[in-house]
Amino acid sequence: MADLVVRVGSRSAQGVRPNNEDAYIVSPDSRLFLVADGMGGQDRGEVASHMAIDIIPRALNDHLAANEPADYAVDKALHEANAAICEAGKGQPEGRRMGTTAVMALHVNGTVYVANFGDSRAYLIRGEDVRQLTVDHSVAQALVNCGALSPEEARYSPYQHVLHKFLGCITLSDKADVRPFTPMPGDRLLLASDGLTNHVEDEDLRQGPRGYPDPSVWAHHLVDLALARGSRDNVTCVVVAFEPA
């Protein structure tokens, strides 16, 4: 496939929250894109999300420089961030330890590698097809997976925002589920915190690239849309557009 031009848009809004615990990276040079949504109360979530966006790029660079496979490098970078955040939160009460979600995409050698921990999501929009590439690591989603809840019931479940995997989780031992795909001309990749994904529908994502071909304009529109629909959370997204060279 011919080379693609990658264009990126991004935006983060504090919304009605007293501070913004979301953080993100847009690095076209290293082809790394990442959204982290911190948690833990007071300023601890903000510390955790910023630790994630600091540690993950450096760890990725080290592993890739050692010629390790990209999927392995992604997994190791996430786990190194988890270990550092766990260490930093050791002195905090167990129920209030800081943590953060992370959803990331690494574009190397014509392939995009997507991975996440938590409930920040990645979507691939390709023509009329809208595909969620990540699985929420929430208790509600786990109940859906085992058939105890329907997807609609999970959406309104009190366990929707209770996470069992995230960065800063001392019991996190599973490997990251790294999902590769080959980008095609016209594709849009959306990375977003749940402050956005809880308030947009698949149809919004399907129509967006046609109505807002500039990824920066679309990113700003999506954040405004989530806030207009009542999001009470921080709202962050990164839009990656793959265009013909």
Low-confidence stretches: none
Q: Name the CATH superfamily assignment.
A: PPM-type phosphatase domain
Which CATH class applies here? Alpha Beta
As a percent range, the share of helical residues equals: 25-40%
Number of strands: 11
Tally of structural domains: 1
CATH architecture: 4-Layer Sandwich
Q: What is the H/E string?
A: EEEHHEEEEEHHEEHHHE
CATH topological fold name: Phosphatase 2c, domain 1
Strand and helix map with partners:
Elements: E1 4-13, E2 22-27, E3 32-39, H1 44-65, H2 70-88, E4 99-100, E5 102-108, E6 111-117, E7 121-126, E8 129-132, H3 139-145, H4 151-155, E9 179-181, E10 188-192, H5 194-197, H6 202-211, H7 215-228, E11 235-244
Antiparallel strand pairs: 1-11, 2-3, 3-4, 3-5, 5-6, 6-9, 7-8, 7-10, 10-11
Main attributes of the structure:
Phosphatase 2c, domain 1, single chain, alpha+beta, 6-stranded antiparallel β-sheet, 11 strands, globular, 7 helices, 5-stranded antiparallel β-sheet, 33% helix, 245 residues
How does this model look, in words?
- The structure is a single chain.
- The chain has one domain: PPM-type phosphatase domain (Phosphatase 2c, domain 1, 4-Layer Sandwich).
- It contains seven helices and eleven strands.
- A hairpin with a 2-residue loop joins strand 5 and strand 6.
- It starts with a strand and ends with a strand.
- The strands form two sheets. Strands 2, 3, 4, 5, 6 and 9 form a six-stranded antiparallel beta sheet that branches.
- The chain is globular.
- Helix 1 runs antiparallel to helix 2.
- It is α+β, with helices and mostly antiparallel strands and 245 residues long.
